[in-house]
Amino acid sequence: MSLCFTFSSFCHLYDNASSNRQYPLPNLKATNLHLNFGVADESNHRSIIPCSSTNRLRRVSALKSADGDNHATSPAKSLRRLLEAPGIHLGPACFDALSAKLVERAGFDFCFTTGFGISAFRLGLPDTGLISYGEMVDQGQQITGAVSIPIIGDGDNGYGNPMNIKRTVRGYMRAGFAGIILEDQVSPKACGHTQGRKVVSREEAVMRIKAAVDARKESGSDIVIVARTDSRQAVSLEEALWRTRAFADAGADVLFIDALASKEEMKAFCEVYPLVPKMANMLEGGGRTPILSPIELADVGYKLVAYPLSLMGVSIRAMQDALSAIKGGRIPSPGSMPSFEELKEILGFNSYYEEEMLYTTKTSQPDLNKGYSSTSNSSYSTQRSAQNNPEKKNQTEDPVVEVVTPEILRNYDTFGSKAPFLGIWSRKLRVRITGRDGYEKLDVRIPAGFLEGITNIVPALGGINIKGLMDDAALEEGGKQLLDFNDTMGDRIQVFIE
Questions:
Q1: Pairing state of beta strands 89-94 and 111-113?
Q2: Helices (H), 152-257
Q3: Distances (CA, A) of 24 to 15, 19, 216, 273, 276
């Protein structure tokens, strides 16, 4: 599915009466802007709205220059090319290296860091100015080092006066950020959608952006500067609009007013210097700004969209649900978490093993004949045996491994020919858990001979003599219910032998 918008052929300079700054418009001749859902249109190399996993090579090629430049580009240059690309670009906010990797795996071309989320997951504290510059830079290095997509870092209020801001910008450059968001709040700062927001004076706010631009020039970097104002809630909409104009004049690359209260206010903001990219903040779960769809935001005039709480919010809820399950004597349902194999793939175990093989030498390969048991080391035992017996000194012995299966076990008459436990191997235990709401949470079958497996699945069964119950039912034909009770969470647990 794609939506196509056509722009008329034009190329001119925009000149604001209050500034000598000019903004060149690209030469767009009947350009078709496709908003692609799912698979990208082959005629347009950029997947504007990522949906599901996108081929990484396609995303990388989307950021390369039209002349076929295959050389590695800086994160900032990749972000600038994204800003020059048509359409709107969506960026979930990450808070650590793993969440950034998931964003990249999902097919997004960039993402933000969230001070709200980093403060929560790194410190377990609210976003009220408690986290420091050093902690944010350290977290940023972990994030940018884990992915190849450009990351826009949350620089809060720069952590001090303009001199501190210059140091902050240089630190974010070295940390590998493609862009930095700087705001005009006083210290201590806080989330823009919370109460009691206060901002610095106009002069100081503009001076912060000028200091950031100077730091960029002095460092020879092209880091993208996103200028944010919180004056909409602290003062007024008119003040916020004045500040964004002044930020653009000072050299900001992207403008951002946080906590706008209506779609009309968002339109008024996007009419300020229309050619300077605007950023929207879709605060999930009940912020001050109305939640608009990507198409609506593109129609209003936005270029970048941040989703700051989605990953953090669902992570917290998932952990709460898992903890409730464990406290109730069971593990989270299989459908609520990835399998162990999926976890290994996400974390890069398989890629690590493949790369490790490139550097494997003959001497570094493990001796598979060497084993270890709780009673003895087989290699050591073999050597001692050869020393004690000269006839075996020049002989090598392979370790003997005996596998005992239920069929073999039946041949042993240790418990007597009519031992009920032995017949259990041919039957299965069915464990069924039904929630208080009536929905089925678990329904699994395991070989009845492996009793330890049951308590691993349902810890609430620990301490119950299930073997004794099975012994009583061993000679009965067909299925039989062994247990039926409610655990401390009110879930119904049933165990059957089939």
A1: parallel
A2: 162-174, 202-219, 231-234, 237-250
A3: 9, 14, 22, 12, 10
Backbone angles phi, psi at 318, to 5 degrees: -65, -40
Residue 321 burial (CB count, 10 A):
14
Rounded CA separation 226/267 (Å): 19
Q: Give me Rg for the CA atoms of the chain.
A: 31
Measured CA to CA, the distance from residue 486 to residue 435 in angstroms comes to 10
Give the C-alpha separation, 159 to 175, whole Å: 16
Angle, CA of 438, 440 and 442, to the nearest 5°: 145
Q: How confident is the model at residue 287 (pLDDT cuts 50, 70, 90)?
A: confident
Is the peptide bond preceding residue 188 cis, with omega within 30 degrees of 0?
yes
Percent of the chain with pLDDT over 70: 68
The number of angstroms, rounded, from the C-alpha of 98 to the middle of its chain's C-alpha atoms is: 5
Tokens 């767009």, located at residue: 28
Q: What is the DSSP letter of 484?
A: E
Question: Among 167-171, 187-191, 263-267, 289-293, which stretch is predicted with the lowest mean pLDDT?
Answer: 187-191
User: Rounded to 10 degrees, what is the CA torsion of 50, 52, 56, 60?
Assistant: 0
CA separation for the pair 107, 104 (Å, rounded): 5
Element (H, E) at 297: helix 294-300
Is residue 228 within 8 A of residue 202, CB to CB? The reply is no
Contact at 8 Å (CB) between 146 and 113?
Answer: no
